[in-house]
């Protein structure tokens, strides 16, 4: 029964992650399909560019909550007390939630890049590394104004911090899933930014708030890229 309840937690995590917050906010605020505006992404950055910073921050907060709450609540509520491998189930729920955001069934598997949702997940699983990664993002973004670069730097710093804190013990029997998570999820986030990497290398990536942002060019200015 423990396994069945654990699987149920993971499936529910994916369903929560699949809630297209940015898409729904854009529909509610302005009656638009956010996928047809700016970069075509449903995440907080594109919502902020198209609708304004306050709506981008709202989406950021809600996406983070939909990542953190399933990890914090679902295993505790559904798994029997004293379940062996409780941390592993928490990690599995976190991964499912991030994947749900990136590949939501509700939007034909075309979602965001998972940064805000991952923020909520790692805040529960590894708060120390999350604080350091968040600081790295703020420094990088403050210096260059590239949200994409800041997100990738933060993902890399999270992984490095986890290894610095735990060393080889990160892959021990009691928390091996957290070790795998600390490598694969940052790598997946960076991979989801591959189009941004290309634009950064070509000098074409818009800075947040810049007047030449794709969001300022109107609906359908660029095809949906997931970023």
List the helices and strands and how they pair.
Elements (H helix, E strand, L loop, with lengths): L1 H16 L3 H10 L13 H8 L1 H26 L7 H17 L12 H11 L1 H18 L2 H20 L9 H17 L1 H9 L25
Helix pairs in contact: 1-4, 1-5, 3-4, 4-5, 4-6, 5-6, 5-9, 6-7, 7-8, 8-9
In words, what does this structure look like?
Helices cover 67% and strands 0% of the residues. The model is unreliable at 214-227 (pLDDT under 50). It is built from ten helices and no strands. The protein has one domain (2-104, 112-208). The protein is mainly α. It is globular.
List its traits.
10 helices; single chain; 227 residues; mainly alpha
Structural class: mainly alpha
Number of domains: 1
Number of strands: 0
Report the span from N to C terminus: 40 Å
The SSE order reads HHHHHHHHHH
How is the quaternary structure best described?
Answer: single chain
- Which percent bin holds the helix content? 55-70%
Q: What is the general shape?
A: globular
Number of helices: 10
Outline of this structure?
With 227 residues, the protein is mostly helical.
């Amino acid at each position: 029964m423990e396994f069945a309840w654990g699987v149920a937690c993971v499936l529910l995590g994916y369903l929560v992650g699949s809630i297209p917050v940015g898409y729904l906010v854009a529909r509610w605020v302005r009656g638009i399909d956010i996928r047809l505006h700016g970069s075509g992404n449903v995440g907080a950055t594109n919502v902020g560019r198209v609708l304004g910073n306050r709506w981008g921050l709202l989406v950021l907060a809600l996406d983070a909550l939909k990542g953190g709450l399933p990890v914090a609540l679902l295993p505790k509520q559904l798994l029997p007390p004293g379940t062996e491998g409780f941390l592993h189930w928490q990690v599995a729920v976190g991964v499912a939630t991030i994947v749900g955001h990136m590949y939501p069934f509700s939007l034909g598997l075309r979602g965001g890049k998972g940064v805000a949702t991952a923020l909520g997940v790692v805040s529960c699983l590894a708060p120390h590394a999350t604080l350091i990664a968040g600081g790295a993002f703020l420094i990088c973004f403050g210096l260059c104004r590239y949200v994409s670069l800041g997100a990738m730097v933060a993902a890399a710093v999270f992984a490095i911090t986890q290894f610095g804190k735990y060393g080889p013990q990160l892959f021990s029997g009691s928390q091996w899933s957290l070790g795998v998570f600390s490598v694969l999820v940052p790598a997946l986030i960076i991979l989801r930014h591959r189009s941004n990497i290309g634009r950064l290398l070509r000098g074409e990536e818009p800075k947040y708030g810049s007047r030449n942002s794709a969001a300022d060019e109107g609906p359908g200015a660029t095809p949906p890229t997931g970023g």
